[in-house]
Amino acid sequence: MVRNSEMEIADLYELSPMQQGMLFHSLYSPNAEVYVEQRTCRITGKLNVSAFRQAWQQVVDRHPVLRTGFVWELEKPLQVVFQQATLPWIEQDWRSFSPIDQTSKLEAFLQYDRSQGFDLNQAPLMRCSLLQVDIEAYDFVWTHHHLLMDGWCNAILLKEVLTCYEAIDQDRSILLAPPVPFRNYITWIQEQDFAQAEQFWRQNLAGFSTPIDLPIDRAQRSTHKIGQCDRQQIQFDSIFTQALQTFAQQHHLTLNTLIQGAWAILLSRYVDRADILFGATVSGRPPNLAGVESIIGLFINTLPVRVDVLPEADLVPWLQQLQSQQIERESFAYSALTDIQIWSEMPPGTPLFSTLLVFENYPTSIETALQNWPSSLQISQSRGFDQTNYPLTLSVIPGECLRLHIDYDHDRFTSDSIDRLLKHLQTILTGMLTQPRLGDLPLLTEAEQAQFIAWNQTQQNWPQNSIVPLFEAQVERTPDAVAVQTCGSAVVSENQHFSYRELNAKANQLARYLKTYGIQPGSIVGICLDRTPTLIVSLLAVLKAGAAYVPLDPRYPTDRLTQMLHGVSIVLGKKIDQTVEAIDVENLQIEGDSTNLNQSIFSDQSAYIIYTSGSTGQPKGVLVSHSALANYVQAAIEKFELKSSDRVLQFASISFDAAAEEIYPTLLSGATLILRADEMISTSDRFLKACQDLRVTVLDLPTAYWHQLVQELPQFPSSLRLVVIGGESVSSACLAKWHQQTNIRLINTYGLTETTIVSTWRELQASIGNRFDRSACSQHTNLHP
Questions:
Q1: Which band of pLDDT confidence, cut at 50, 70 and 90, is reported for residue 528?
Q2: What's the DSSP call for residue 207?
Q3: Per residue in 479-490, is it b (16+ CB within 10 Å) or e — as a string?
């Protein structure tokens, strides 16, 4: 082949927006397969090999873009069109190999062919291979770089190859209209109003500065290089496909809008955010450009799609608004993604999005084009390969049976998580046909819901619907075991130990004392104490009296604590408000009956009231029933495999739900609850040493603090067997480092990291429309949200 440096240059012009991005990523990526497009098929019949080769060369000669190379070591990258370029053509005879060997050789050949990539400044960035497997059978491989053309062009090009082949084979003239050059599109782009585009994108992306990090993504946010990709797909039957198409038509929607809406909802549920951003490809072919529908070249562009996913929104109007926004967005489809990134508020170096949606809506599919080849030739086993620079790409292929496939970086996503994601997307699409509100759309599959409910149906093993008799039964089993232990702190000057017998006796005495203040079922008692044994005694005493408690962290501002006193009869501990009496239980000496009270407690009675900040910033109380707490505790004991030999650190603020996850499972399994001192967390090293000295076996930590420990500590205590984290998504870098450092079991109650958890709290919450009521916890209980 003649080197391009020796060839005559026919034209020189700038790149389209998408070409600019692809060139950058192609040069940046260590993976030669990025943006390499490959098609293969089996040709059976009397193929005129010489005419076939000439036909492909004729097409290269016709279209300037197919004789194009790229130069980038200039002020701006340019594409160079050469007067001529010889198409690389490979022919091999595999007839001596068995069909099985031919199949394996083909796969190896395809892989090798892709791995060769292309020298981007050498035209043409395309090659063909014809592998003869029988007397009248060939495997044909067509490989090109995506810089040259998009999927729209495939059918156009194959149709031209067919026309040229038939003319050459029959020794007649080739009759094809002169092609419209791709340069016309570049000229059109240069005439557009980029100031108006900048204004649009700045407004569209205003306020969006935090990327969407999927909890199933195992990589660091800073990792942009794409490794080896795998693919999984799902195909809907014709009945379901028709149902989706009918729904779309009835509401004047496109199928593309329906898929985009479902994808936005899925991302929103996965990351627990309403403000969602992902990438989507658009055809990019301006209708006012003459002959645009037949031009060979790269028109598609990738644009950010920003969507507000509001659970209370009605589905159809929301989808119609999404479609209107899509039409407006495509008016500025000529904008380069690199410019949009600059116009956004995303920090420099942070990609706008890491997931891409591609809807392959072409006028003529490649399969249809292949079917129109001469009757003397049969085309079969057609398939393709392509790879973007995004770690997760969802492609939608419409047809009689709608097909979705996801290409994903297998270093960042597991096959199980992608399989689950596809099924969740199908569940959302199914729900769209019947559910009128976004918040009512399900996420979990029927199998996941059944498994989740089965895992949480704990009442059959716990006839009592309260933790009180369960704790008292544990006291009978291990009366002398250490229930609560302190570690010296500013509040507790030395280590203290309470046996199960002592803890139960003190709780019984305090419960009787509370009754003298009129505390009974239905009463609400505030508990505002530091992390001392008296705190645990007080929690149990209120429950034993049949009342409900409100956990109040004494470190909270007084104004906030005062707002949380609604309905509170009395406070144990710190005086908060002059209108509510407080009992100094730390210094209270109680004598008398220490036997169990046998107070009747019903399953729907409130055990405690937990306060959240609320959507308005005002504290919002949520009731947790006794049956909910009992089920919650058993679920945690089973999931954490707690034993009487365990030593669990009580880390969380008493005002957080996580505190209940630490305290009650520990006390109902006969283990030891160790009350953390504030001094323990002054440094990571100090925390490590304290956990080692205290022989802690189980830690329940906020994810952010776990991140800090993983980054700062070379190892964890040898006594530790389990770490539970939750509250936010996990850094993939920390997760990778954790698994390199230790074999300690890690359970993430926030995302999907623990593969044995089929459904997380957030998935369950999403599946019932974000209308989760903790009174339902007796049937649906997970680890803390």
A1: very high
A2: T
A3: eebbbbbbbebe
Write down the number of H helices and E strands in the chain. 23, 27
Q: For the CA atoms of the chain, what is the radius of gyration? A: 33
Q: What is the pTM of this model?
A: 0.62
Please say whether the beta carbons of 439 and 265 come within 8 A.
no
Q: Which is higher by pLDDT, 387 or 459? A: 387
DSSP 294-358: G--S---EEEEEEEE--TTSBHHHHHHHHHHHHHHHHTTTTS-HHHHHHHSSSPTTS-S-SEEEE
- Residue of 170 and 229 predicted with greater confidence: 170
Cα 511 to Cα 153, 424, 519, 537, 673: the distances in Å are: 79, 48, 9, 9, 21
Q: How far is CA 94 from CA 137, 612, 620, in A?
A: 10, 70, 73
Cβ partners under 8 Å of residue 515, min gap 6: 545
Determine if the peptide bond prior to 287 is cis (ω within 30°): no
To the nearest 10 degrees (0 to 180), the angle between helices 703-712 and 732-741 is 50
What are the E-state strand segments in 570-721? Answer: 570-573, 582-583, 606-612, 620-625, 647-650, 672-675, 698-702
3-class secondary structure, 464: coil
Q: One-letter amino acid identity for 594?
A: S
**Residue carrying the six token digits 């996850």:** 661
389-403 burial: b if 16+ Cβ within 10 Å, else e? bbbbbbbbbbeeebe
Query: Which of 256-265, 342-351, 454-463, 671-680: highest mean pLDDT?
Result: 256-265
| Contacts (Cβ under 8 Å, ≥6 apart) of 321 | none
Rounded Cα distance, 558 and 562, in Å: 6
Q: Which two tokens stand for residue 676?
A: 């953390």
Amino acid 219 reads A
Strand order, beta sheet including 392-397: 229-235, 403-409, 392-397, 355-359, 275-282, 301-308
